[in-house]
Amino acid sequence: MAEDLDKDAAPAPRPRGGFFAKIKRGLFMTHTEILEKLGTAVKQGLGFDESVLESLEEALLSADVGADTASALADAVRARTGGAERKDLPALRTILLEEIEKLIAAAPKPPARIETPLFVTFLVGVNGSGKTTTTAKLAAREKAAGRSVLLAAADTFRAGAIEQLQTWADRLSLPLVRHREGADPSAVLFDALSAAKARGVASLLVDTAGRLHTKKNLMEELAKMRRIAGREVPGAPHATLLVLDATTGINGLEQARRFVEAAGATGVVLTKLDGSARGGIVLAIYRELKLPVLFVGVGESVDDLVPFDPAEYARALLGDDASN
Fold it and tell me: Which residues pair with 296 in a beta bridge?
């Protein structure tokens, strides 16, 4: 899916629409709060004193950036403000925006899609993150790209998960491998891999059971599934996407850290960024986990999963222009 990201994420011509318009609505309260706090602290003509920089760090913390990342950004801004020609809010916003863009640019880029007859993608995350719906939305993107797709309902624990994915499969006219509720997820995966190989399917998307990152036995089950996938298809799973609910804020960072360790997550899909999410967790994911955000969910329809655009995100987080 990363090759599609490169194609689809090209910056749109201004005036902005699509990705920018949707995430700007979702992050409106965040950038308003950040700029209001800074505007109160900045005394035009008196320079950027330590109280302004402390207000900056507090504003970043309130946006769910996380303590370490907020401190690092504040230090980077502090190192630049002494020689700033202008000492007003727009100048401070510009410096902060540039430092956020540097932070994102320093992180690894999304990996290129591996050329393989069967590309296997695991969707992992905690219950309630939107994982099953995201699986379906990614399947729709794969189908639109001209690839044959098979879905695997390996979330056999959550009541209704199999039927939810079946409904999506029917809506998208895609085949689904499923077992009964409570069945062994690894058995579902094995059957799905066998079916995908037999049918010559190009893309297999596996909806795994939602699990708390603190539950060792469930994490071990996920590791078992990874071993089965690798045994049946060389290099599989080729992508393991961690689905995070943006409204969980900085708590999602610890979830992400555990899934990187146990599940080998290669990228993040951030859901519910159009709602009450503060959105700063994106910066913590990039800086602390060195993990790229590949897609963001900005609504309920099948088309409301869009490739992540780091530059547009940074501008939405701080408002579209210096006058905001």
Answer: 270, 306
